[in-house]
Design brief:
Bound molecules: inosinic acid
Strand order of the largest sheet: 4-3-2-5-6-7
Helix content: 10-25%
Number of helices: 3
Structural class: alpha/beta
Number of strands: 9
Strand content: 25-35%
Distance between the termini: 31 Å
Order of helices and strands: EHEHEEEHEEEE
């Protein structure tokens, strides 16, 4: 695992737009080990297809899949619900669909963050219509108190407060996905 670099030195190029560290790289990696162990245990008999929601969940998927000790398979979807702003539009657009036929499969959606819940709610219904054997969600972050729709989350990494956050896959206008910790964003969106 890469040494974590959520210190002032390695983030100097982004520092003017970053607030406090919400979750350090070390805490992220420790939680992902735990999630991987739990998923390994729960899916012993039926390794899931991990559905990564691009682009925000890509860092999470890359680390999580290496902690799952089962022959999982991986596929990607791209959805858009925000555009470049920091408020949800409530409209979910499918930009890239799965390549895999999911009928009869165990599906585990790997998501970066659940905010209003609208994106996941839409995805669960959209993929649910294709007859998977099961469909569950593993979300790294859950913004507490903001859910406009209730979505069942089988695995959650961290509950976080309402602030807009960036890093570890999460962006603002495509920036800061490459930070290895999660920060509050204090710049102009
Ligand atoms: P929801 O539909 O409101 O739950 O929004 C989910 C999507 O919005 C996530 O998959 C992210 O791509 C994006 N999002 C929500 N909150 C944040 C945030 O604080 N930072 C960056 N992206 C976010």
């Amino acid at each position: 695992m890469a040494p974590h670099s959520s210190d002032d030195l390695s983030t100097h190029w982004a520092r003017h737009e970053l607030g406090e560290v919400v979750i350090s790289a070390k805490d992220l990696q420790a939680k992902i080990v735990e999630l991987g162990q739990q998923i390994t245990k729960d899916y012993q008999d039926n390794p899931p297809l991990l559905v990564c929601v691009l682009k925000g969940a890509v860092n999470f998927l890359a680390d999580l899949m290496r902690e799952i000790e089962l022959p999982v398979t991986v596929d990607f979807m791209a959805v858009s619900s925000y555009g470049a702003a920091t408020k949800t539009s409530g409209v979910v657009q499918i930009l890239k669909d799965l390549d895999t036929d999911i009928a009869g499969r165990e599906i585990l959606i790997v998501e970066d963050i659940v905010d209003s819940g609208l994106t996941l709610d839409y995805l669960l219904r959209y993929l649910g219509e294709r007859g998977p054997k099961s469909i569950e969600v593993c979300a790294l972050l859950h913004k507490v108190g903001l859910q406009r729709v209730e979505v069942p989350l089988k695995y959650v990494g961290f509950a976080i407060p309402e602030a807009f956050v960036v890093g570890y896959g999460l962006d603002v206008a495509e920036r800061y996905r490459n930070l290895d910790a999660i920060y509050t964003f204090v710049g102009e969106a």
